[in-house]
Amino acid sequence: MKVADIAINLLSDLGVKHVFGIPGDAINDITFALENKDEIDFVLVRHEEGGAFAASAQAKLTGNLSCCVGTAGGGAIHLLNGLYDARHDHAPVLAITGQVDSEFIGTEYHQEVDLKKLFEDVTVYSETIMDPAQAPRILKEACKAAIENRAPAHVCIPNNIASADCAGDPINIATLLATREVSPSSDNLDHAAKLIDQASKPVILAGIGGAEAAQEIFDLAHRIDAPIVRTLRAKDWLDDDDPICIGGLGLLGGKPGQDSVEDCDLLCIIGADFPYQEFFPKDAKTIQIDSNRSQIGKRLDIDAPLIGSAKLSVQGLLDRVTPKDTETQRKHWIDKVKDQQDDWSKIEKSDKSPLHPATVMSAIGDQTADDAIFLVDTGTTTAWAARHLRVKRNQRFTLSSGLGTMAFALSGANGAQLAYPDRQVVAIAGDGAFNMLMGELLTAAEYGLPITAVVFDNSKLGFIALEQEAKGLPEHAIAFKNPDMAAIAQACGCLGLRAENTKELSSALSQAFASKKPTVIQVPVDPDVLIMPPNPTFSQAQKFAVAKGREMLGKLRS
């Protein structure tokens, strides 16, 4: 058996279904080893970055190991952005890269790059197999590191090593399949429960790490009369229509979520790593639950750290806290959410043209299937989705959260559709992000993936414009002319549509969801609408006014 076969057999045994990449001379043995495998397929992408995004999306949505590959030199380098996305969002991905023959390593050979060193920052494990006898151990250690740390790992295989024979028994994967649940100590749980009992205005901040304990978190919120505020990634499991969830925190959140955190006397953080310290309460007591000690106290000092799995930790609190005999606090914030939603509905149901982005986002949510999967790109679409895409109980939602890189949604949608072939998959992207890896439409067409990509066309880098105006600067170097994306989609073998009003948008969404083809819907949206923070300050308003004045003067002069 060749080293390449050992690698693919291990991935297959671990349940990996797809390997994303582009062939090349240094990984031809790897891709050929997939040729006759029924249970695992090679997926030919159009750019290795798209393959890494697809693998990252699969890992985020399934929670299981995924894989991408790149040949020596440029092919391997192209994987990095998608792997950094996986690193920041705690997604287990194995990256296999080719390399020049081992005898030439260190001689600046054609296409030689020090890939072990290059991948060391993005991965939790990066090794080169220099002897076929090393292959089983290194491959197993890489997969173990990726699964245990929920992060990318990297194995570099020189061309002559991949094709070399490797004797030995099949790799024992028992340690890779074992699950782990950790409970905090009784003393720590007792202390945290005491803080909860003493609080009159507790608030729960839930992140993606709380998904495993969804029911327990709901039960705790009801028992202690606490609203749940969420991070953006927690939209993946926190139903936006559940009144116990009062919205998000931070610039992309809403006023009820932000105000409740500012007003609370106890903040219980569960499975969340929210980096923006300015949005945390100044004087409240704090509890943080995380299975990783290094995550606790990273953003603010914690009074009661609970190191353990979310499910066991919250169960421990449920066994200890005294039920509160009122729902006054939660009802107060639920009323605030209703007031906010009444305001938001005015723009969500608007029929003005060009369309308001919130109108488009609301329409997408209204027409998608009850188990749809949303992949949202970085930019203004992130903000509009955070507030106006109402994700239902059985739907899924993911994005490039920690890294915040553009071009994730389309490639991620390909990975999601392959992982969930019977579910509706929707990529939501701004025009800037979509243009970056538009070639992945060809991947969707080749594999018959019926994804729907909705492109918000404002002919500029909208979020950059917002950042410029927040500094008091006029918009500059952010405008561009878009192609006819519907025509490009048709040329790629996909369905291409354009929607300029609410009637056309509703019709386009219906056509897309009924089609068995990949579909692109290009939607011109109002380029001048602003995403305002939940509680804008006078300084922020002043800088926006200055920026708009400068823009107006610039137009008059031109």
From TrEMBL:
Keyword Oxidoreductase: no
Residues of the Thiamine pyrophosphate enzyme N-terminal TPP-binding domain: 1-117
UniProt cross-references to Pfam families, sorted A to Z: TPP_enzyme_C, TPP_enzyme_M, TPP_enzyme_N
Keyword Membrane: no
Annotated keywords: Pyruvate, Thiamine pyrophosphate
InterPro entries, sorted: DHS-like_NAD/FAD-binding_dom, POXB-like, THDP-binding, Thiamin_PyroP_enz_cen_dom, Thiamin_PyroP_enz_TPP-bd_dom, TPP_enzyme_TPP-bd, TPP_POXB-like, TPP_PYR_POXB-like
Domain Thiamine pyrophosphate enzyme central: 189-317
Limits of the Thiamine pyrophosphate enzyme TPP-binding domain: 377-523
PANTHER family, per the entry: PYRUVATE DEHYDROGENASE [UBIQUINONE] (PTHR42981)
Family: Belongs to the TPP enzyme family.
Protein name as catalogued: Pyruvate oxidase
